[in-house]
What we know:
178 residues, single chain, 37% strand, three-stranded antiparallel sheet, 10 strands
Amino acid sequence: MSAVDIKVKNTGTGEANYYVTVEFIDSEQHSLATEDTYFGHVSATATMSRTAYAVRPADGRGLAVRLVKVKREVVPTKAPATALDKAVSLFVEQGLVPVGTPYGDCPDTAPQAYWIGDRGNCWTAVRTLTPLPVTSAPAQSTLIVPTPTPVFPGTVCADGSVSRSSGRGTCSHHGGIG
C-alpha cells in the first residue's frame, strides 16, 4: 500500500471547504484508483493535510498521483447577533412569541442556524423578507394569533431542498446553505 499526503492552503480571507480529487496511476498512465478528499472549515491562511492510500500494482509497476480537481467553497459567516435580536423583537411585537422567550444560535448544528423557545428546534436563516405592512387592529376585542408552524431540525439549502443533516458538508451538493 502506498500513501500520499494532500495539503491545501487557504489563501482567502475567510473559512473555506475544499474538495480534492486525485487519481493514482501506474507507470503506463493507466488509472488504478480515484480518491476524493474533503477538507472542512479550513481557516483563513491555514494549511490542512489528509492522507490518501492506494494499493501498489501487483506486477511491480510504479505508482504516481495526478491531481484531477480542486473545488473551493466559501463557508458562510454567521449573521451578527443583532440580527437575531431584531428578529426576536419583531416576533414579540407581532405576538408570535411572548416577551422573555429564550433564544440563541446553534453553532453545533449548522452555520446561520438559530433556536427560539426550545433549543431542540433549530431553524436556518435563508433570506431577509420585507416587513409586513402595518394594519389597523380588528374591530373585535379578541386578538387572533396564527398557530405557529411546527419547526423541525434541518437546514434549507440554496436550491430550496431541505436537509436533515446539520454538520459539516450540509447542502454541499445543493449549492450550499441558502
